[in-house]
Automatic annotation (TrEMBL):
Keywords: Aminoacyl-tRNA synthetase, ATP-binding, Cytoplasm, Ligase, Nucleotide-binding, Protein biosynthesis. HAMAP family: Arg_tRNA_synth (MF_00123). It is found in: Cytoplasm. GO terms for biological process: arginyl-tRNA aminoacylation. The gene is argS. Its main location: cytoplasm. Monomer. Its EC number is 6.1.1.19. This is Arginine--tRNA ligase. It catalyses: tRNA(Arg) + L-arginine + ATP = L-arginyl-tRNA(Arg) + AMP + diphosphate. It comes from the Bacteria. It is an enzyme of class 6 (ligase). InterPro entries: Arg-tRNA-ligase (IPR001278), Arg-tRNA-synth_N (IPR005148), Arg-tRNA-synth_N_sf (IPR036695), ArgRS_core (IPR035684), DALR_anticod-bd (IPR008909), Rossmann-like_a/b/a_fold (IPR014729), tRNAsynth_Ia_anticodon-bd (IPR009080). Gene3D superfamilies: Arginyl tRNA synthetase N-terminal domain, HUPs, Isoleucyl-tRNA Synthetase, Domain 1.
Length: 573
């Protein structure tokens, strides 16, 4: 679609006095296909050209019908409505989709840039909240989308593996914990200890003292403390890794907060040299009052460094050592201020990457309409959510397709895909609600619906037999009756296939996987309409060849789009 828009725009430059880019931006998709495939609103031109919009549209129409890409063009209500020549456009799109689907999606706009994407980043010895769940799902998709668009991406898990909570957990473990229970269920047990510590500490404040004592021991390298800390991390990671595997999530690096313990002094020195560090009630801070922000705390009054200092060190590490020029942080909206402060301090330090640092924020996730409060121990464990979704998916598959061969594998793909899709189809800043009935509904706007459409396309191709991967779109010689070369449902499908590139560009520019998720829905709707309106295997040879090529192109584009949002594309289900 991009190429044809550019061609049309170029043809309109002389008559409008606008640039090609401006014209490309102005081209719209008409709300109703009867109006055409593209439309140019001519209202803005009326002033500069001193004619009424319809007259302008009329003049432009005469120009446009002369280019081979355009079948017809006509003015209507101040718009110039454009219908494309169906056959050449369809052939171009379908053949690229079949032969090199990457090229249909991407012009590799970011080649030469390396991005460090920080996502998931759960805390050890603190609950894995729903925020981490969304960060994991959104982050993985952003990594894939950015890679598709040419970025060299480094995925980083900035594990919360340091902090006073470890002192508390060690103290609690030594009082109430035991090795067996933790080993059997590390994340839950550590969380229980965390909750118990806070409850007991309300009655018995001296516990806080003990917590501080153990954290100090940890900082000073006391072997018992270090050993427990390392063990908590190892056991927790085992659990996280299982979930990551289910979700097809993988990181290039696990670089937790503790990794920066020996890298913060350099940052502090730099801040001093830059004259940025000031004292504020015993703490050392960077004053941000000139930017309407509270001070960024670098060292607390007791000399301990904090979250922000580690993030400054991490940003420097990602740029200086890992070679990233773009820094992306997929973290919930409650940390908005933290990232504003962080980026401002980097800017004041003169770091070139400050202007290429982005906080990709997102909304809350609710379960059955209710918010969760981790404080009170109301936690939803991701592994439970996934296990139940897989279970339910398995029951549905059992009922729908009892003879399916690899039911376990498919149930996993469908159950997990349902949870992921439910998250990603929502604009990321909006709240997501989660209900099993909804996410697994095969007829709704769901993961199973999209996967089922992919399986349907695969099934048609399987039944067609032969080597489908070498199909090309048939272009009958001398086919001049362009309007009838593809019927309306075939053409609507081609138009959707042609929008893959725009979907990728927008998803990457806005760091928003929901653009790609919604694109899969549009494509599925178009394919299913095409499928219900046209015989494929039982049609005459020319129609059959064209429709099979359309089916293959759809399967390839859908598989790629699903991959980009982190969802499996089963061939049967
Ligand atoms: N562990 C943090 C939390 O749960 C999230 C870390 C996000 N990444 C970062 N570089 N600050 O709140």
């Amino acid at each position: 679609m991009k190429a044809v828009k550019a061609t049309i725009a170029k043809a309109l430059v002389p008559a409008t006095g606008l640039t090609e880019d401006e014209l490309v931006q102005m081209l719209e998709y008409p709300p109703n296909p009867e109006l055409g495939d593209l439309a140019l609103p001519c209202f803005k031109l009326a002033k500069s050209l001193r004619k009424n919009p319809n007259e302008i549209a009329q003049t432009l129409a005469t120009t446009l019908v002369q280019i081979p890409e355009v079948a017809s063009a006509a003015p209507a209500g101040g718009f110039l409505n454009i219908s494309l020549a169906r056959l050449p456009f369809a052939k171009a799109i379908v053949d690229v989709a079949v032969q090199d689907v990457h090229a249909l999606f991407s012009a590799d706009r970011h080649t030469g840039h390396r991005a460090a994407v920080d996502y998931s980043s759960p805390n050890i010895a603190k609950p894995f909240g729903v925020g981490h769940l969304r960060s994991t799902i959104i982050g993985e998709s952003i990594v894939r989308l950015m890679r598709e668009d040419g970025y060299d991406v480094i995925g980083i898990n900035h594990l919360g593996d340091w902090g006073t909570q470890f002192g508390k957990t060690i103290a609690a473990y030594l009082k109430w914990g035991d090795e067996e229970t933790v080993r059997a269920n590390p994340v839950r047990e550590l969380f229980k200890l965390y909750v118990k510590f806070h409850e007991e500490a309300e009655r018995n404040p001296s516990l806080e003292e003990e917590g501080r004592y153990w954290f100090k021991q940890l900082e000073d390298g006391n072997p018992q403390a270090v050993k427990l800390w390392q063990w908590f991390i190892d056991e927790s990671l085992k659990v996280f890794r299982k979930t990551y595997d289910l979700l097809n999530v993988s990181f290039d690096h696990y670089l937790g907060e503790s990794f920066y313990n020996d890298k913060m002094d350099a940052i502090v020195d730099e801040l001093i040299a830059d004259n940025l560090l000031v004292e504020d009630q015993g703490a050392e801070v960077v004053d941000l009052s000139a930017y309407d922000m509270p001070p960024c705390i670098i060292k607390k009054s007791d000399g301990t460094s904090i979250y922000a200092t580690r993030d400054l060190a991490a940003a420097a590490y990602r740029h200086d050592q890992l070679g990233a020029d773009t820094l992306v942080y997929v973290v919930g909206g409650e940390q908005k201020l933290h990232f504003q402060q962080l980026f401002k301090v980097l800017e004041l330090m003169g770091k070139p990457y400050a202007s290429r640092a982005v906080h990709v924020s997102f909304g809350l996730m609710k379960f059955n309409g209710a918010r969760l409060s981790t404080r009170r121990g109301h936690v939803v464990y991701l592994e439970d959510v996934l296990a139940k979704a897989i279970d339910e998916a398995r029951k549905i598959i059992e009922a729908k397709n009892p003879t399916l061969a690899n039911k376990d594998q498919v149930a996993k793909s469908v159950g997990v895909g349902a949870v992921v899709f439910n998250d990603l189809k929502t604009y990321r800043l909006h709240e997501v609600d989660f209900r099993y009935e909804d996410v697994l509904n095969f007829d709704g706007e769901t993961g199973p619906y999209v996967q089922y459409t992919h399986a349907r396309a695969s099934s048609v191709l399987r039944k067609a037999g032969g080597d489908v991967d070498t199909l090309t779109f048939p272009a009958p010689a001398g086919a001049t009756d362009d309007a009838h070369a593809l019927n309306d449902t075939e053409w609507a499908l081609v138009l959707q296939l042609g929008q893959a590139n725009e979907a990728l560009n927008r998803a990457v520019d806005e760091y928003d996987p929901s653009v790609m998720a919604r694109y899969t829905l549009q494509l599925c709707h178009a394919f299913n309409r095409f499928y219900h309106h046209n015989p494929i295997l039982q049609s005459d040879p020319e129609d059959r060849a064209r429709r099979l090529a359309l089916t293959l192109a759809t399967r390839k584009v859908l598989a790629k789009a699903l991959y980009l949002i982190g969802i499996d594309a089963p061939d049967e289900m």
